């Protein structure tokens, strides 16, 4: 067969196939051009998910009349001067967007170059220029209209999703670009609805709060640097998490980037803080010398290649873990307004108390806490051996309160002995002295200037987890009666085979008995008497969920957290005063004990001054 050179029109359509996948890609390219042109206000309008019409109006430097046609030529760009492809400071540099969009739609670009007296328009349809360059009325900047996207390539039309889904991807793209370009204003209008309005901001943080309200009162600052790689940004406390990753904004040298390495590093940093399948909320900006990152990897420029992957991974994990652990684990560095007691929020005091109660109740009704309680013996805290009392429905429990029985008399002799110790605990310990247990689920402790409410299950779970983690090959106990467990599906059995040795290191001796049965002979001593069957099935489920891509360490931690959940004091079990105080002391010594490994808080605190406000003493 004879070889021919493809004509420009075909070449552009092929390029369009890569650059312009859907309406959101058009929006991305046009908005990037507006940003590159130094605009301060950018307005985007779309009709029917961008399929019928996309317009982008900016107030940037504009295009000279004689350059209009050039702008629609392939590989024509004003942004690469020396052709070195190294110092890429603009969002665009490939000179492909305009010719690609023109190849698959009807486009009209009107622009007034700064310093010019008149504005001019140029039009293309399916890659062909239509008519001449004509005068246009525009006070400044550039105005672009893209109609009937993909009319020239109907195949593409079939792949478009619903109007709602396409609109959502446009919102996501604009959100991302607006986030990192915080000093510019952005407006997005769909039909007659304004979907987004961002005003010019002075910092990434203020833009973040403008777009994602959660950050206002829940965020911590990230700042890490090594060898010219700088990581800055803000993360929400892990208790604020989502089922989707849309609230993870990542940028590299000012460019929104979706990169597996970054996501992997983020997930790793958070694995101890949020449950699997949940995603944290954050905006992170990685800045590095231009020659250390290749942005010319993908036609739509949303992927990059890092020169030193390892260093990037380290900077990101270290930066995040540092913030997560110092702020959550170490009590002494949590400033009062940074604790999760809503004190910092602007809400009126009564609302504060409402939120407080609401949170407590929702935690108690969480499915995690409603599981059957199991008796167990615990090496870590030997005292925790009193019999289980089944958790009752919260309302039922409160009904059973007998108010007439409230003691007005001074404490009994037995507790008097503790008096000196008590005072010391209240005055000098971060979690103070445990006074009592309520609903058989929460411990109430008194500290000098605040009241603490501990969720006994969540707190203990964290302790067990940290303990397991520190001693992966800890002591194991032989089960008197080895437990036969049936694993119902094939993948489950495969998973057991693959992880048998790893589980052995964690303290489980498991033998495969038949096609669908395994025998558990030993379990970690710390777990005491637990429901082995239920635990193993849960571990297998967990392992099946875990993606192959996760580092092995990550997998182990996931399994450990499943185990910890099973091996912990249940909500609903009555605790003795000494047990409660022991739990508080253990929490004080354990890293990250401020939240359970599902990301929920293990305790909350209420400042005495806030309580006084509630009672109008202040
Ligand atoms: P690239 O952005 O990679 O340079 P494009 O095809 O997106 O390629 O744009 C081609 C050229 O058109 C740009 O280099 C720029 O000079 C000019 N241009 C496009 N859009 C605008 C705009 N909104 N304002 C000013 N100039 C623009
Ligand atoms: Mg461009």
SSE layout and pairing:
Blueprint: H1 8-19, H2 23-36, E1 41-47, E2 53-58, H3 68-71, H4 97-104, E3 106-112, E4 119-125, E5 128-136, E6 141-147, H5 154-159, H6 163-180, E7 185-190, E8 193-198, H7 204-211, H8 215-218, E9 219-226, E10 229-236, E11 241-242, E12 248-252, E13 255-256, H9 260-270, E14 279-280, E15 282-287, E16 293-294, E17 305-306, H10 309-328, H11 349-365, H12 367-370, H13 394-399, H14 413-416, H15 419-428, E18 433-438, E19 442-447, E20 450-455, H16 456-470, E21 476-486, H17 490-505, E22 509-512, E23 517-524, H18 532-545, H19 552-566, H20 577-589, E24 603-607, H21 608-614
Parallel strand pairs: 1-7, 12-15
Antiparallel strand pairs: 1-2, 2-6, 3-4, 3-6, 4-5, 7-8, 9-10, 10-15, 11-14, 12-13, 16-17, 18-19, 19-20, 20-24, 21-23, 22-23
Helix pairs in contact: 1-4, 2-6, 6-7, 9-10, 16-19, 16-20, 17-18, 18-19
The site of magnesium ion has 5 residues, from helix 2.
Task: Give a nutshell description of this structure.
With 618 residues, the chain is an alpha+beta fold. 37% of the residues lie in helices and 22% in strands. An eight-stranded mixed beta sheet has the order 5-4-3-6-2-1-7-8. The protein has a five-stranded mixed beta sheet with strand order 9-10-15-12-13, sandwiched between helices.
